[in-house]
Every structure is written in C-alpha cells, then in structure tokens.
Description:
By secondary structure, this protein is an alpha/beta fold. It has helices spanning 16-21, 46-55, 67-79, 97-105, 122-137, 142-153, 166-170, 209-225, 241-254, 267-273, and strands at residues 4-9, 24-27, 30-33, 36-39, 61-62, 84-89, 112-117, 157-161, 188-193, 200-206, 231-237, 259-264, 278-284. It contains 10 helices and 13 strands. Strands 10-9-8-13-11-12 form a 6-stranded mixed beta sheet, with helices on both faces. A 4-stranded parallel beta sheet has the order 2-1-6-7, sandwiched between helices. Strand 11, helix 9 and strand 12 form a beta-alpha-beta unit. The two termini are 25 Å apart.
Amino acid sequence: MTKIAIVTDSTAYLTQEQAAENNITVVPIPVILDGNVYDEGKDITPAEFYSKLKTAKTFPSTSQPPLGEMLKLYENLRNEGYEQVISIHLASTISGFQRNLRTAVADLDGINVTVYDSKITVMLMGWLALEAARMAKQDKSVSEIIARLDDLRDSIDEYFIVNDIQNLVRGGRLSNAAGFVAGMLRIKPLLTFDPDTNKIVAIEKIRSLKKAYARVEELFSKALAETDYPVRGLIIHANDPEAAEAWKADLEKKFPEVEFEISFFGPVIGTHLGEKAIALAWMKDFTKV
Length: 289
C-alpha cells in the first residue's frame, strides 16, 4: 500500500493532541506584530496575541512559511518512507501560499505532493485534515481521499460577525470593501465566502449583535432545510470564549439534531478579523456520512 502523509498549516487550529494522534504535520504560519515574527502555534498563543494586539504600535500582518522549509519537510517525509503527501492549506483567495507551493514541489524527486485548496481556513480545514488522516490510515488512495475532501468542502458554509471590517480592508482580504467602510460605527458587518469567487465578502450591515446572531441563525436554519444529510456545526471566536459558549448553548436548544463544537480564530486569522469576531460555520458531518 502507498504510504500517504497528511500536512496542513496552523490556521487549521488543530490541537497538538489531534495532530499527534492522527499523524498530521502542522506547518506554522508566521504573524508579524510590532516587528516581531511569531510562528503561530509555536511562539505565541491566541491569548498572548490578542493581549499584545491591544497595545501594538503597528497593524499586524502575516507571512508565508518559507518554501525551503516546506521542501525540507516533504523530503523528510520521503525519507520516512512516504510516497505521497496531501498538503491541505488555507484558501488560495486568502493567501498566495498554495500557488508558490505548487511551483516549488514540481521538481521534488521520490515523493508526490498534492497541494489541496481547502477554500476555507480555521477548524473547518482542520476537519478536512482529520478526515484525510482517517482515510490514509485505512489505506485509501490519494484519489479517494481527494474525492471525499471535495465532497465535504462543497458542503461548507459560514457567516462571520465582526466588530470592525477595517482590519480586512487594510489587509486587502475584503473584496467588496467599497460601500461597507463608511458609517460602520455601531454596525455589525456580516461576512461570508462568496460561493462563486470564494473571496471574503460583506453581505449585510446589521444594527446590533443580537440581530446579527438572529440573522445568522435564520440563514443556518434555511441551509439545514435544504440539505439531505446530517450537519456538524462550529462556533468560532476571536478571544471571546464566553460568547461562544453562550451561543453554543442557545444553538443546541434551537437545533438539537446538530452537534456543535467550539473553536477559535488564532493569530493569523485574528489579524484580519480582529478581536471579538465570532462565526457560525457548518459542514456535512464527516463522522456520520
């Protein structure tokens, strides 16, 4: 059987235990804050990042993992006996990392690397990596794993509630910034990934956090009514665990048929969404179908 390695990046926000238990290699993405470079998941915790962000003199930014280190990682996997790698990374519409990585791996000898566009990030991408690892353990082929990932990826949807879209605008991650920037005081912008372009877009301006929650729940309810498979829900927060726990409890009452988890926006994604952002996301429940 072909030995397949699973690689992802730190924006999957897998725990160290999840990565270790499933033999997933996690590549840290650098975040730069006040001239200091931190490898996400290694040099700085989410709590430390948000604490530093409050007193930062400059707007934080992110970088890409060095390609030389990526190639060395794949070569090490080859030396461990792996013949194939599925490398699952954050959306190509967020970062140019995938494009550069595809070019770099073309000349690798002795190991084949499939660079997979999750078209998303955060724990949704983590779920894809976990499922890929499960299938690799079962000796499934690369093509079988990719087909499964495609199916799960197509079922993903998400809505982000942010306090301020200025971070996304500055970082160039909001594709339809015009018209949403002015008059944003006391407005809760609702964001999602556009299904056609896969870019982050602002879709609605909502006057209060309470109304924003209600609108997201309305959209979630509509999506559930249109699916014929079980869904797994995910509440994601930017340094606001209390709000995430409260929303999870409320959602579990309203949607008892759905299993919900809580995850977080770490430093790299938090750089663009800002503190106190919160999201509801979902995907086909890969543990059931």
